[in-house]
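General statements about sequence and structure are easier to judge against a single worked case. When preparing material for the folding task, we compiled for one chain both its residues and its backbone structure tokens. The amino acid sequence and the backbone structure tokens for this protein are reproduced below:
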Amino acid sequence: MIKKLGIIGGLGPMATAYFMRRIIELTDAKTDQENIEMIIYNCPSIPDRTGFILGQSQESPFPKILELAQSLERQNVDYIAMPCITAHYFHDQLAENVFIPVSNGIKEAAEYLKERGIKKVGIMATDGTASMHLFDSVLMNHDIACIYPNEIGQKKVMSIIYDDVKAGKPVNMDAFMEVKQQLLDEGAQVVILGCTELSIVKRDYQVGPKVLDIVDVLAADCVKKCAKPRIECENLITI
């Protein structure tokens, strides 16, 4: 039976659109009716997650995120996804305030990597995600070590996310590849694109091998929970 998926989107809008596309692409559907019914709130007015986490803003995104989740709940969705990894800072708090499951992209990534024997990963993500170590504790529980870009590299990642992708400008791929290579040189077996804006980079540019896109992980999880997945759900790391 096909289940109904609720999506808290707009964080940012392009990443939400790509997330929906990946869900469709990863669903083994031969007819329209075999696809997942989705209710999507594309709400870009939600306050910036990184700014709040770093103390640069006093406006919490959580009340609006919770409002949208509860609205989805009233519309009888079976599963909720939030295609924004920085917003996973609020995941547990959100899950405690609704009565339906909320996808956890970080946990799903950890389980996916552990099943494939990965022991060390590099993380490309926002300052908010990095500073709060959102990946670290979950991955450590799966015996996976995390490494992050150095200070200069992290500034490059933030510029790609905010100055390039969110601003709708061409991506500085030289900077992207420099950061990726730094992480691989330090022993990462896989580099996680731990921000859904970086998923847009993978969509539009060649990012090379050994990359795991968090949007793919989230989309695959939603498909497995709500419909019939394609075999591609098991082969998410670029080669």
About this structure: The domain at 5-104+216-233 is CATH 3.40.50.1860 (Rossmann fold).
